[in-house]
Amino acid sequence: MAKVLYNLSIELYQWLIRLVSPFNQKAQLWLKGREGLFEKLEYQLTQARQKSQSPLSIAWFHCASLGEFEQGRPVIEAYKKEFPNHHILLTFFSPSGYEIRKNYEGADIICYLPADTPSNAKRFVELIHPTVAFFVKYEFWYNYLICLQQANIPSISFSTIFRENQVYFKSYGEFNRSILRLLTHIFVQNEKSASLLAGIQIQENVSIAGDTRFDRVAQIAQNKRVIPIAEQFKNDTQTLIVGSCWQQDFDVICPLINSFAHPLKVIIAPHEIHPEEIVQWQKQLKKPSIRYSEALNGKELNNAEILFIDNIGMLSSLYQYADYAWIGGAYGKGLHNTLEAATFGLPIFFGNKVYTKFQEAMDLIAIGGAQVIDNTQTFESIFTSLYQDFDKRKEVSDKILTYVKSNIGSTQTIINFVKNLIQTTNK
């Protein structure tokens, strides 16, 4: 019965997507991206086989969206290095991942994942017949996993994290537990996740490997871009960066910027780029501001105290120019990526609503590297204290850097396992 309901829910989801697509751009992209998908994929595979001088071995990586892609990226690249003759197939569920990374050079074929119906899953798995399949963090699709198991293709979930309030651990969650049991191996982020799985008799195929995002942000830090405008704007002045800023974040930060009596530069990167929103934020600030595009076009930077980033793609490199980071989203839909700032040792601030499900946020709070902010008054008190105490700031920064460094290595753990798995399978 549960299986029937699951398949009905997949059909219902597709129906709802079609229903809202005339009014929703993401729904339109979701549908359009799947039109003729099997035919396109078959053509790409035929081309790849013709170019290959040996039988085609495919490693399939699936990510829900952009965040999971960044989590999976170090494993994709390490796998390609370990198995240079294997082809990488990268699939996305969401347009927000596919549309941004559809030209990613680390994969040989990139496409949407067909909806998880029995017929789609059977056709897809038979078509690609991967050597191994990887699912990043939360992607547990019943029909795909059944087909992989039936074809004796190993399936691996990594950077996975569980919480006790999830359906897998409820009295009515047996079907969902059965999906987890289909996986060949689950690499979880922490001991708590492993313990929760052990409580539902899933433990022999579970390992604690940490979060591959630590490896990813370490890569970003090593390969950071030089951004001359940001360097010129900072001009050896203490700098606060606001990454993925929402209106709720700005409402708390703006009064501090306006009243702060000491030299301070502020870089604000909105969560989404809406020129009219940036203009409104500039009007609320009592100090001179400039947009990145204006500076790029030659407008004078010297008098500006606030720099608005009105483009996408440079936030992770901008953190190198900051001394503190406010990470947005925690007052609303969910905290943005804190690790990109943490890898540069920046003391971190964020809102007090939606952050507890992010393990790294809780870890950073525990070591004193991150502060939860209720309101402007709290922010002003904590920020001013750090601003005026270099030794304290250095102590916090060192703790953050030690934390990040101690969590690097998840990718290699996964690759070592897969290498042994493939060698064993091929014997």
Describe this structure in words.
The chain contains 20 helices and 14 strands. Helix 5 (95-101) links the parallel strand 2 and strand 3. It is globular and about 65 Å long. Helix 6 packs across helix 7 (142-150) and helix 12 (247-259) packs across helix 18. Strands 3-2-1-4-5-6-7 form a 7-stranded parallel β-sheet, with helices on both faces. A 7-stranded parallel β-sheet has the order 10-11-9-8-12-13-14, with helices on both faces. The protein has 427 residues and is of the alpha/beta class. The model has no long low-confidence stretch (mean pLDDT 94). It has helices at residues 2-20, 25-32, 37-51, 66-82, 95-101, 118-128, 142-150, 174-180, 191-198, 213-222, 228-234, 247-259, 275-284, 292-296, 315-318, 339-342, 359-366, 376-388, 390-406, 410-425, and strands spanning 58-63, 87-92, 109-112, 132-136, 155-160, 185-188, 206-208, 239-245, 265-270, 289-291, 306-308, 324-327, 348-351, 370-373.
Q: Which features characterize this protein?
A:
49% helix; 427 residues; globular; seven-stranded parallel sheet; 20 helices; alpha/beta; single chain
Set down the secondary structure blueprint.
Elements: H1 2-20, H2 25-32, H3 37-51, E1 58-63, H4 66-82, E2 87-92, H5 95-101, E3 109-112, H6 118-128, E4 132-136, H7 142-150, E5 155-160, H8 174-180, E6 185-188, H9 191-198, E7 206-208, H10 213-222, H11 228-234, E8 239-245, H12 247-259, E9 265-270, H13 275-284, E10 289-291, H14 292-296, E11 306-308, H15 315-318, E12 324-327, H16 339-342, E13 348-351, H17 359-366, E14 370-373, H18 376-388, H19 390-406, H20 410-425
Parallel strand pairs: 1-2, 1-4, 2-3, 4-5, 5-6, 6-7, 8-9, 8-12, 9-11, 10-11, 12-13, 13-14
